[in-house]
């Protein structure tokens, strides 16, 4: 667990310069608040986990030193409450990660109120179900005595039964969110072919979904393998799923904000479905060039349809060719 916390802290603070550039300055918004919560809540959980492990756990040795039944019960209660709190805060941290992705997909469906309501409903239901399973796991938690023969002390607990249920609602929600992202890209194939924005969203979404799937799979399988404590105990008590999803979500948010900075725009504008579909632009002859076309005469709408034949009323002109930044894809 100590090694896990050390690696988590190193990864979280590796790109501190990007955090300061995109999230530590500027106006406060939902994206900024969620990023900071996600970025620093997971290390706080690791510190709490280390603290819970170091709590005194009543055993034969501690009872002789305490010489009080009340003190023994106090140590037992502190140990159990610490682990229960750890379970609940882990679900809260996962909820922050999921809220970050919901906001990200929210902008992609600005015209579909039904899709937005479905996302909010799925987010609420899955988090409530996960919270219920976390509470049940905390109630069924049993503290084990110290193994003085092997010089093992501290707060220790039996592995809760069916612990894998905590992560299944999260996997269902992430599957839904990535499916909506892929659907949004496939629905606008003409835009997707020329737009690095949607390509980045699909690529990052696929990477994030892969991380979530592997994390949940490891935790679920490890929860079943009770005869192998070297796998089972880390899968339940190491907060592996929270750490990996938190790091992946931070990378996704840094990726879209760095792309917005390269294109000289705001991340919310880039993710907005209306703005992506209404601008008649195409890729230029060289890398990083964008040609924006403007209709003359009786323009019929915001979107240029390449399948329509040319006519005096539908003719267009190349309004501007500008260098908006090289697409070097060095975000990762």
Automatic annotation (TrEMBL):
Residue ranges occupied by any DUF6533 domain in the UniProt entry: 21-43
Regions crossing the membrane: 36-56, 86-107, 119-139, 166-186, 207-225
Signal peptide: none
Coiled coil: none
A Pfam family the protein falls into: DUF6533
Keyword field: Membrane, Transmembrane, Transmembrane helix
Alphabetical list of InterPro entries matching this protein: DUF6533
UniProt name for this protein: DUF6533 domain-containing protein
The species this protein was found in: Mycena sanguinolenta
